Amino acid sequence: MKKQRLKAVALTTMLSAGALMGSVAMADQTLDAVLQAGQAKTTLAQDSQKRIDRLAQETDDLAQQFKQQNKLIDDLRVFNAQMEKQVAKQLVVVQELEQSIEKVTVIERQIQPLIFRMLDGLEQFVNLDKPFSLEERQAQIAMLRANQDRADISVSEKFRQVLEAYKIESAYGSTISAYKTTLSLDGQDREVSILRVGRISLMYQTTDAQASGYWDVAQKSWVSLDSSYNAPILKGLKIARDQATKDIMTMPIQAPEAAQ
């Protein structure tokens, strides 16, 4: 009887130990499942946080872009307002130009006859003036007359060219120059040097510096000078050619005549 009781206790103990071991195994499995679930939640939380951080960064970027775009829009509004003012002023200028163009058409019709009168006056002046650089000056006038028939030159340019010719003629009165040419002296052609001192005196001297003369306005011809003028005229030629320093020169000068 006692043995049966001991067997029963032993069997109960073994059953209890088996149950305990089964419980421990189940507990281990449950703990693993809990840990895995926790790890999964942690991973999900980390992924969620990364998405949140990324969305937050994208939101900040969009906010910055929005601010920049708003600033750009404000700048464009200011720029457009300024452009509108400029366009309004330019429209006024265009209207003024249109009116000026109408006036220019009238002025052009008046300028062309004026140019012809100026050319006539210039040609007459050259013919009455002392005959220095005569061929060059007459060629200039002929060129200006020919330009009046050219359609590729504007009226304003034609007028400018005539004014430039007047300036050149005016400059002759305050300059000194020397050049070589051929004159008919005593019935024979002689190579001479011409000395022009403003419009005060126009003289010549042969290349051997042995004969000199001047242009007589009254006689409209060359008149010989005595040999005492040879040295002063030679000196004047050197000064005009920058071969000598400027100095006082003795020149034949005709007394002015009253205008007719």
TrEMBL record:
Source domain of life: Bacteria
Which residues fall in a coiled-coil region? 45-100
- Leader peptide range in chain numbering: 1-27
Q: Pfam families, alphabetically?
A: DUF3450
Q: Which InterPro entries match?
A: UCP028069
What keywords would UniProt list here? Coiled coil, Signal
Q: Under what name is this protein listed?
A: Acetolactate synthase small subunit
- Report the source organism: Cellvibrio fibrivorans
